[in-house]
Each structure stands twice: as C-alpha cells, then as structure tokens.
Amino acid sequence: MEKCGWSIQRDLKVELSCKTEYAVLALLELAAHYREAEPLQIRQIAAQQNIPDRYLEQLLATLRRGGLVKSQRGAKGGYLLAREPWEITLLEVVSCLEGSDSKPSTHDTNLKTVESAVIEEIWQEVHKTAYKVWQGYTLQDLCDKRDARRQLDIMYYI
Amino acid sequence: MEKCGWSIQRDLKVELSCKTEYAVLALLELAAHYREAEPLQIRQIAAQQNIPDRYLEQLLATLRRGGLVKSQRGAKGGYLLAREPWEITLLEVVSCLEGSDSKPSTHDTNLKTVESAVIEEIWQEVHKTAYKVWQGYTLQDLCDKRDARRQLDIMYYI
DNA sequence: GTAAACACCTGCGAGTAACCGGGGTATACT
DNA sequence: AGTATACCCCGGTTACTCGCAGGTGTTTAC
After folding, report:
1. Do A120 and B16 form a contact (C-beta atoms < 8 A)?
2. Burial of residue B89, with CB atoms counted within 10 A of its CB: 0-12 exposed, 13-18 middle, 19 or more buried
3. Which residue of B has its CA nearest to A141?
4. Do B57 and B63 meet the contact criterion of CB atoms below 8 Å apart?
5. Which residue's alpha carbon is at the shortest distance from the C1' of C18?
C-alpha cells in the first residue's frame, strides 16, 4: 500500500527497452520512405525490422496519439510521419512512449526530507543531460548515421 | 520466450526508484556518523530516514557484497562505510544496486541490424553522460549539499 | 554460560509494467 | 459486396520492485 509515499515525476527511465527500440526502428522506417507519399503498413514495418506486429500496433497507436505519426484507415492504408524527419527529435519519441497516465498529483514539497530533496536534485540533473542528448538527434540524423554505417560495412567487406 | 532476442548491457536504468533512494539515504546516514567509529544498526537508519527496515536489510546486504559498506555482527553490531565518504561516488552506488547477475554473454555483433547499432550507439552516449554526472558526486558532496540546504531552510524560516 | 541483540539468509506475496496474442469493429479501396 | 487495413478491448506470461516473515549464526553483556 502506498508503495513509496510520493509519486513525483521521477519515473523517466533512460534504459533502452524493446519498447523504445521498436518505436524508433518503426519511425526510422517511416522516415526512410518519407519521400513517397504512400503510407506504410504495420506488417511491412514489422517484417522489415523484425518486430512482432501485434505489439508494434500498440506502439504506433501511442505514437499517433502523441502526434508523431498519422494513420490512414482502410485498404491501402497505413502510417505516415506527421512531420518532416528533421523536425522530430528523439526526445519527443521517448517522452511520448512513457508519458502514460502519471499524474504528478501536485505534491507538497514540505513533506520531503532534506536528504530526499538533494537526491532528487541530482537525478533531475541527470535527466537534464539525457534530454540534451536526445534533443540533439532527429530522425533525419539517425537515417544519416545509418547510411554512413552501411557505407562502412561495405568498405569493410571489400 | 527469449523476450528481446539480444541481452546486451543495455539495462542500466537512470530512474530514481525507491530502491536507489533508500540506499543513498542509508549511505548518507552512515556518512554523517562516519567520525564515530561505532556502527549504525539497521533500525536506527530505518527510523531516521523512514525506510522499512526489512527492506533496508536487503539493500545493505547488496551494498556489503558490492564492497561499499562493512558489517559487524552480533550485539553492538551494525554497518560502517567501507571507505571514506569522499571516496565513494554515486556511480558506484547505482552500479552496485542493479549490477545483479546480468551476463553480457558475449553477443555476436553481426546479428544486429544496422539500425539497432545506431540506436545502441546513442543510448551508450546517454549513459556516458549520466555516468559523468554520477561520477562527479561523492557521499561527502551529498552531505555538504544537505547541510547547505538546511542552512537555507533555517534562513527561510526566519 | 546463558540471554539478548544484532546481522544474515531464504523464501513468499502483492503490485506493476513490458511484452505478446485473440478477436472483433470501423473505414476505405476495388 | 468484398477485401484489406487500422482500431480497440481484453486477456496472459514473464520479470521486477517493494516489503514482510521466519529461522540461523555471531557477538556482546550479564
């Protein structure tokens, strides 16, 4: 019961879960086909990136509600990026995925001990630096990185 | 089955869980009483920082196995810092708590897709920046921060 | 040498979240 | 109409966090 007492906005993880990776991979796939105006189907993305399609469906729904992708229903439907690939940062993706339904609940700061406040402050600093890194990469940057790495692989193969 | 397919060392979280906070609070308490050579009992720490004592017992065991605290059994026993407060960094604490038993299992890098490698690279960068922040704070620094904040609270009260 | 105080170990149970699949409904193309 | 697709609800497994209970081993105090 009550678990930890306070439920501040301390729950922003920085781990690379399958959830996050799947979402980024899907967005990367959408970004790669951004020039054609045709939407990509879930199964195409899933097959291309080796993601379980039923799970990807949920993730794309979350991304849609977060305003990162657009959907088109019916036959020949699918998903499209809501904005240009260079206008979507990784920070938006990560924030969208774990936003969930956490209510900060307007916590009374006087209840916290001094020690807790100090710890909280440092963790905020860590999150801040993580945000900066994520903010610094757009989907376009990721695509460029992928292309560069592909070139390297080819040269290594020869 | 198999969950994610690969089990690289991607599992270092940056969230502030109760687990981590409890451990840091306990270490802070030990650091505060570091000058007296007498060990602190679990219940004393638990009562002082409002931590469930049975749970704190497990955390202190982990910290002991990680070499961060020393224990003294029997009556008049308890826990002591294994090193000076200015020689223990937050990075050591965090690493100790979730080190668990994850074997990197020498993963074959050729199985990863190019996209996954790109994502992995960025997450490594995030972890690196987080490490640097944690590495920059010792238990002594935390104590100093606490004292400074206490002074502020007093002045604010007047 | 007996009792008390303490660390130490194992295990359990509720809660939560990530991770997947089933099955049905709504919508658009042909 | 029929088909293909997104959309939605609802389980189910696994794993982890948090916390409690019971028992054992070790040291000090009387």
Report:
1. yes
2. middle
3. B118
4. no
5. A19
* CB half-sphere exposure, B113, CA atoms < 13 A: 15
CA dihedral A39, A44, A49, A50 (to 10 degrees): 150
In the structure, how far is the CA atom of residue B25 from the C1' atom of nucleotide C12, in angstroms? Answer: 27
List of domains in chain A = 7-157 (1.10.10.10)
pTM: 0.88
pLDDT tens digits along A18-66: 899 999 999 999 999 999 989 999 999 999 999 999 999 999 999 999 9
As a whole number of angstroms, the distance between CA A120 and CA A111 comes to 13
The two tokens of residue A111 are 């209840």
Q: What is the pLDDT of residues B24-81, one digit of tens each?
A: 999 999 999 999 989 999 999 999 999 999 999 999 999 999 999 999 999 999 999 9
H helices present in chain B, as ranges: 18-32, 42-49, 53-65, 90-98, 114-135, 139-157
